[in-house]
Amino acid sequence: MRWIYWLGWMSFGAAFRTIFRLRVIGEENLVTEGSVLVASNHQSFLDPPLIGNLYKTEMYFLARKTLFKGPAKWVYPQWNAIPVDQDRPDMASLKTIIRRLKEGHRVLVFPEGARTLDGEIGEAAPGIGLIAAKSRAVIQPVRIRGAREALPRGSARIRFARISVTVGKPIQLTEEELKEASSGKEGYDRLAKRIMAAISAL
């Protein structure tokens, strides 16, 4: 683990344990080796480091392209952030994610795309289905609770709230499922809904 990543990992980890009294449920389900597509609901800016702290090795995640400015322009790449344009998503970001997974890395994706406004889990975009089908990676469903209360969308003020993360059993797609999912947008959409349903069930 590189020093700048380790520093962020340690700092956020300490905050989650002391300030937010982080509780991890289903830790035994974590896939800690090889290519893993981590799929989680999205509640807060806290979510990427929160999920990252579940693992003791580095992972990649998506971040809004607009965040890559000033000091963050250097820091975010050091934290393995992949820039994405939320207004005009392109294939370049998806290809980067798929490449990282094929190289054997762990990548965090939020199927909903944006943080929730009301705390409810939203619908998944077909992109997560495409990534899962093309990368053939193991899918790790994760559900976050309490992060919205700690730092809701549109707020810059941290609140003291209990955060919990539930880790679901990994999903390994069969050859038949991969073939069906790769049939086009409808196939990717069905796979995306399956992944979102797994998250919702946690």
Structural class: alpha/beta
CATH superfamily: Glycerol-3-phosphate (1)-acyltransferase
Write the H/E string, N to C: HEEHEHEHEHEHEHH
Proportion of residues in extended strands: 15-25%
Give the beta-strand count.
7
Q: What is the chains' assembly state?
A: single chain
InterPro entries: Plipid/glycerol_acylTrfase
Pfam families: Acyltransferase
Protein name: 1-acyl-sn-glycerol-3-phosphate acyltransferase
Domain Phospholipid/glycerol acyltransferase: 36-147
Structure description:
Pfam families: Acyltransferase. GO terms for molecular function: 1-acylglycerol-3-phosphate O-acyltransferase activity. Pathway: Lipid metabolism. It comes from Luteolibacter pohnpeiensis. The protein has 202 residues and is α/β, with parallel strands linked by helices. It has a single domain (3-200), classed as Glycerol-3-phosphate (1)-acyltransferase, CATH 3.40.1130.10. 38% of the residues lie in helices and 16% in strands. The protein contains eight helices and seven strands; from the N terminus they run H-E-E-H-E-H-E-H-E-H-E-H-E-H-H. The protein has helices spanning 3-18, 47-52, 72-78, 91-102, 127-135, 147-150, 175-181, 185-200; strands at 23-25, 36-40, 60-64, 81-84, 106-109, 138-145, 164-167. A seven-stranded mixed β-sheet has the order 1-7-6-2-5-3-4. The radius of gyration is 16 Å and the shape is globular. The mean pLDDT is 90.
